[in-house]
Design a protein that fits this description.
Strand 19, helix 16 and strand 20 form a beta-alpha-beta unit. It is globular and about 70 Å long. The longest helix is centred in the N-terminal third of the chain and has 17 residues. It has 22 helices and 35 strands. A 7-stranded mixed sheet has the order 5-4-17-16-18-19-20, with helices on both faces. It is about 30% helix and about 20% strand. By secondary structure, it is α/β, with parallel strands linked by helices. It starts with 8 loop residues before the first helix and ends in a 6-residue tail after the last helix.
């Protein structure tokens, strides 16, 4: 297969990763003739690589020890080192470019200067400190993707307190399932948001959320719609720049920075805790070296605070880039709205999902014809696998010299394991390289490496941004079960991949049952809780299936209760309860009556085997029939034909 994009050698010479290779070569006396040689060193000598990265980005005095224990789980990185994420942001302050550009549906762009960003951060940090917020306390957000979310996070982190957030597309119950675990002391929220040319008032959800968070001492509200939230404080009033300067508190390398969440497939979402130091190093590496983002860039990833890509985009501030916050629809008022926003902001690196790209294909959009994308050099893709046809469409309709950089990783490490780099070609439907420091391999079920065939994505060595812990997991048992049960001491991520003969990667989708619609990871458990509370529903099964054309099919199979049937009226109520109690993104593509739901002998729904059936796997090899409570149901599901 021929590459669709080949780097210009002048761009290779001035790429940040090339500069780092020269730096590392001078430091070690080694020669790195190409990216793959640099990657091999980065995983063979973890202490040498991460120590060089620390020095390259001038993060402080050279640490005495980089990696004191490389075992997984439990690797010990940079013992004795103290730092704060916010210091790395503050040192990038400048006057010639904004820190944030904010866009809303139909509104003019608003620029937030670095002075305003840091000034409001300092002021809000002082407010939190005055209210008794201490290192380790939790401050949570229920917010759209607006600059105030970034400021609230930075203020929280500057104190050594712990940030966590959900987007406002989540229902109050779904947000409580996540934020409620943390016993937060402060809630930062907005009275609502605009999406799809509609105003969404969230005051009722805020009231429900506050009622379910008994540890709250304060609620701060960003006014978006002019609604009233009783017994709260107005964001604009308490964060007006006061001339205060950021007073950060240094914390240990692995001190909690934020809590992100698993999808909630098997119950309440797991709180995934990442540390200050691991995130700083990983994000500097991923943003500066892999994506080549720096002080001249405008970085815009279409995301929400519920998704790790929000955290990843904020990392643009770590390298002095301008980031773009947008809380509207990517397809309002027209299917090409996202491309228009990229043109208006002079975006250089734009991130989106395979689903959005496919919608543009179907709508006949030609971005390079209708929008000035002359500044754009990279389109990042994540959330699911990008098919070759969509990758080629991007080159043909966005720009031949625009690099299509699919990335694959996860909330688990708040970064990517696989993706692009400006010094290696791009092949349609493939991810060009493993990221530096990520010891990625493909293993079969016996734990042996495989090439040219599908295997489990594993990491054989640790990364600094692996979770410090799971929240409320004092003995680490849930953490070990999530990644290390299948291959003890080796991280199994839950993706199927193939390593090609030219060193690139093909990602085939999830090998577990996480739903992943349009790049937003969702939990089946949330859907089951809502749907199966209806008296007419005995049981249900939701499956997410990546389609060959890059689409995503998410059917919900419903087993009616005795005496009930799946009528149009019941189907409408099922959609309504999912929309109200979970989120609009969880509403299935189809609701299909089923004779039953197959389970393991221990009562677990067979989500992964059914998904594999819909992806064309051999029914005889999907699952051992003797391990199923009702094997005949497998035949019924095998006969279901996904839409073409």
């Amino acid at each position: 297969m021929q590459p669709q994009w080949v780097p210009d050698q002048r761009d290779v010479a001035r790429a940040r990763v090339t500069d780092f290779a020269r730096f590392a070569g001078a430091r070690t006396g080694l020669d790195f003739p190409d990216y793959h040689a640099l990657w091999r060193w980065s995983v063979d000598d973890l202490s040498g690589f991460w120590g060089a990265l620390w020095a390259y980005f001038d993060l402080g005095p050279a640490p005495e020890t980089v990696l004191s224990d490389a075992s997984m789980p439990g690797a010990q990185w940079f013992p004795g080192v103290r730092l704060n994420y916010v210091d790395q942001v503050a040192r990038q302050a400048r006057t010639d470019r904004p820190a944030i550009v904010y866009l809303s549906e139909g509104g003019a762009a608003t620029e937030i200067s670095w002075a305003e960003l840091l000034g409001r951060t300092a002021t809000f940090a002082a407010v939190l400190r005055a209210r008794g917020v201490q290192p380790g306390d939790r401050v949570v957000g229920y917010l759209p993707n607006i600059p105030e979310a970034v400021i609230a996070f930075l203020a929280t982190a500057s104190l050594g307190a712990v940030w966590s957030a959900c987007g406002q597309d989540y229902s109050a119950k779904a947000a409580l399932d996540r934020l409620g675990q943390l016993e937060p002391v402060v809630l930062v929220t907005a009275d609502g948001y605009r999406y799809g040319d509609k105003a969404h008032d969230k005051t009722a959800e805020i009231a429900e959320l506050r009622a379910g968070l008994p540890t709250l001492r304060d609620t701060v509200v960003v006014s978006r719609l002019g609604a009233t939230v009783p017994n709260s404080q107005d964001w604009a009033e308490i964060t007006a720049p006061s001339g205060a300067e950021i007073d950060t508190g240094e914390v240990d390398f692995d001190h909690p920075l934020w809590v992100l969440y698993s999808s909630g497939t098997t119950g309440k979402p797991k709180g995934i805790v990442h540390g200050h130091g691991g995130v700083v190093l990983e994000h500097l590496k991923a943003v500066a070296l892999q994506a080549d983002i720096g002080r001249d860039d405008v970085f815009f990833w279409y995301t929400s605070p519920s998704w790790m890509m929000w955290n990843f985009q904020v990392a643009g501030l770590l390298v002095g880039a301008t980031i773009v916050c947008y809380d509207g629809s990517p397809a309002c008022p027209t299917p090409d709205a996202l491309w228009d926003l990229a043109a208006r902001t002079g975006t250089t690196v734009l991130g989106t999902s395979p689903g959005y790209v496919l919608s543009c294909v179907k709508a006949g959009v030609v971005p390079k014809r209708d929008h000035d994308l002359s500044a754009l050099r990279t389109v990042g893709i994540t959330g699911s696998a990008l098919p070759p046809s969509s990758s080629l469409w991007l080159s043909e309709n966005v720009g031949e010299r625009v690099q299509v950089s699919s990335i694959s990783g996860g909330t688990d490490v708040v970064s990517a394991f696989l993706g692009g780099v400006p010094t290696v070609p791009v092949w349609p439907g493939e991810l060009s390289v493993p990221f530096l420091g990520a010891a990625v391999d493909a293993w079969d079920v016996t734990g042996h490496p495989v090439r040219g065939e599908v295997g489990e994505l594993v990491l054989t060595k640790p990364m600094p941004s692996m979770p410090v812990k799971f929240w409320n997991d004092p003995d680490g048992s849930r953490y070990r079960a999530a990644y290390f049960d299948m291959f003890p001491g080796v991280w199994r991520h839950g993706d199927w991949i193939t390593i090609t003969d030219h060193g690139s990667f093909v990602v085939h989708g999830r090998s577990d049952s996480t739903l992943n619609r349009h790049g937003i990871r969702m939990g089946s458990a949330d859907i089951y809780q809502a749907v199966e509370a209806l008296p007419e529903v005995a049981e249900s099964l939701v499956i997410g299936v990546e389609r060959p054309d890059g689409g995503y099919w998410m059917p919900l199979f419903v087993v009616p209760a005795e005496g009930a049937e799946l009528t149009d009226e019941l189907a409408d109520r099922i959609k309504a309860v999912i929309r109200a109690e979970v989120s609009p993104r969880h509403v299935p593509d189809a609701i299909i009556p089923a004779p039953g739901v197959p389970h393991t002998r221990t009562g677990k729904k067979l989500e992964v085997p059914i998904k594999r059936l819909f992806q064309g796997a051999d029914p005889a090899k999907v699952v051992e029939r003797t391990a199923v409570d009702d094997p005949a149901l497998l035949d019924w599901y095998a006969a279901v034909t996904p839409p073409r």
